[in-house]
Fold each of these.
Amino acid sequence: MKKKETTGSLMLFVTAMIWGSAFLAQQSGMEHIGPFTMQAIRYTLAGLALLPFIAICDKMGKFTKKPVTHEEKKFQYGSGAVCGVLLCAASILQQYGLLYTSVGKSGFITALYIVLVPLIGLLFGRKTDVFTWIYAVIAVVGLYILSVSGAVSVNVGDLLTLGCAVIFALHILKIDSVSGRLDGVRLSCTQFFVCAALSAVGMVLLERPVWSDILAGWFPIVYAGVLSSGAGYTLQILAQKDTDPVVASLLMSMESVFAMLAGWVLLGQALSPREMLGCGLVFAGIILAQL
């Protein structure tokens, strides 16, 4: 494996760790405020957290793909806007899906972007070799064993979450198509502010946030905004520049495993043999894909 590919894979592995460990914070924050309010605040914080970083790197001349011409700026911020719309739609569908389905099923259905990425990629002429398909299926089986228990049924929450998985797959493919041609940090910052603005509209129209409720959940909200969103999604964009989108989706699906492990370490929620088997299969699919 080339050095850049290895670095990209490690960055996505860290991204999955961040998202998995922050899942508890996101759940905690939602106990105080609604989904649109949560998104509006967390993505505003994520965008604000990147602004000083961009300013410092610009001053040091670290960004080689900084947009200069009108066409470059149009492409840079247009791509960020599209990513922001996709991110907002996927996140909201996931949040509302959780009102009707379990956390485990939501995690499994969302992670179906593992197989949706190569399927949708076929429509755009992107082929995936048969071995990667096999490894993706192994990981999906592992996620099912890890996340879903009892009788299988489909409700409106499952369908909303499936829509979320489709849009996340489009988000991954969109980032793959543009990440090597523009500044990834600016792309990330733009998508955060677009997502925050769209969420703010929903917050004003559908929710009545109370300042005391926001203050009551300030720590998980800040944690989800700065770490899960600001650091996690930015690492995703930077890493996808040198990583195949199907392999990237496999690595990012590890967030379900890390969420389970975080519950074990932080909350003392012991893993059952079934859950351990599921984790093992996910690991196996990802390691095989890397090899």
Note: The mean pLDDT is 81.
Amino acid sequence: MEVNKFIKELKKINLDSFFGVPDSLMSDLSKYLEFENDEEVKHVITQNEGSAIGMAIGNFLSTKKPSAVYLQNSGLGNIVNPITSLASEKVFSIPVLLIIGWRGEPNTKDEPQHNVKGKITEKILKLLNIKYTI
């Protein structure tokens, strides 16, 4: 992914706030947000994925602008409560763009600890009614 082009496209749709937990699969994104972005982009590294969702929700409530949350798929469990209790279309319909690094992706060599979560990542997204594209 060409990060600067990706960020530029997101800014075109009024998305300029990013919250998340750095992931080695998305190190270019993390580095860009932390060290190379312009002053128009808000970026906060959070202590866990649930906090990132909470901050994105708070940002939307104060600005009426959606945010992006980046995370590794191993952090999906940490977002279940804030996604289902607050952001869900059936609750408050708060838009959040999730950028998820897929460790243990099927048919991809990865460390053993990532393989279980990798196999069920899509099932988790479907269970949470999260629309996604790969």
Note: The first helix runs from residue 3 to 12.
Amino acid sequence: SIPAYELIRKRVETADVNGGDETGMRINGQKVWFWTLQGKLFTFIIASLNRGGETIYQHFPNGFAFSVLVHDCWRCYFKVAAVAHQICLAHLLREFKHVSECYKLKWATDFKQLLVETIAFKKTLLPTDYHKTLIQRTEFEERLTKLLEETIDKKHPIAVSLQNRLLKYRQHLFTFLYYHQVPPDNNASEQAIRNVKVKQKISGQFKSFQG
């Protein structure tokens, strides 16, 4: 099994897209983290005591020289060298839904609509379109800039916090509109690591790291 594991690790290193996710688990009563890096033809899973970037650095010390890394906003992912990053828009849509429920802000509704439109637009693009100047893509970028610059009342702290985070990671929001193979979410990674949660639900834990 070790050669196969190493073979998959090398596939991760040279993939053009890697989706990342992590989830908590227990091994013999101890809290650990299971990480996955996933592509269309492979799933690589790591059991680790650490939820920080050290886990990725240990297995991929050179980062991902050929890969766009798709993930949520967990900050350690941004410290990993990659061709580019894509933040999971499915996560953001859920956050904007929560903001809308809390405050009824038009800003949140407009932002959510923008993300939905970009995802739909992605589905209309041909592989050859990504290297062209696309008017609609430019318009999406302009709308994004306006929404990130819009003043939000401080009495809406959840919305302010979300806007500040997106300002910080603005360059990673629409990566999927520039790369044909990059999805707008890391749903496939969440599905790839789901068996770990099934194991937890049925057995409660693993008995050892080797197991």
Note: DSSP finds eight helices and five strands in the chain.
Amino acid sequence: MKFLGFTFIIISAISFGLMPIFATLCYKSGLNIKTILLFRFLIAAILINIYIILKGYSYPRGKLLIMLFFMGAVLYSAQAFLYFSAVGLIGSSLTSILLYLYPSIVLFLSVILLKTKVYKQDILALIFTTIGAILVVGIRFENINLLGIIFGISAALVYSVYIVVGTKAMQGTTPIVGTGVILFGASSIYVIYGLSTKITIPNTFEQWGWIFAITVISTLVAIITFFAGLKLIGPVKASMISTFELVVTLICAYFLLGEKIEFIQIAGGVFILISALILAKEKVKS
């Protein structure tokens, strides 16, 4: 069962790793980030909640319902805002490095709040993960901005809280139903934001095609499989394995977008793969 959890997180990482590729293709088709985020969450929320209703699944009630809605409306939305604000101020490379501090933060929060046991393999895998993430995204410090640094670190903190809260929430529901409530919360915020600003409606088959690719693959599949894996292997290992999405993005950018890969990025990918193998070996033994 735990190896199945590892597999779920790998599928999630692949799905999330494709999102920057789909987003780039969205930009090239004429869409902007506000439009992408609005329709991504709105369509995903509609599709999954229709599925939940048709299957007759029960929604959680009381505190759990509020917790899941909070995860989408506050944590997920805030993380997206902080991340894109940081990118605008300090660039994507430094922002990514700051964001991928989250496995370390998740480990700390899990030990303190969830009393999660941490083993030597976890620490070793975390070291390889951190080094790998830094090498893959590259270290570029041309645009140092204190507010941008604060936004980047805050994005990592918020995402870490999201994962830890999600660990607790998933104990009382299924990944599909939990994702349905979370996406409803996130879409509510983006609909309100969209109505208060100028949003461009996709008007070509190409634009709608990339929107649906982000919605189905990099939102529904990515989130559901992440929570399914999180439920089986816990937040510490799930967050570390998730960094595999950087490798996926790197490879897909090379083959699909024609971007160059530097040797240092390949080395970073190897570090991340070693981290995944360390955790996979541990899961097989368990």
Note: The radius of gyration is 18 Å.
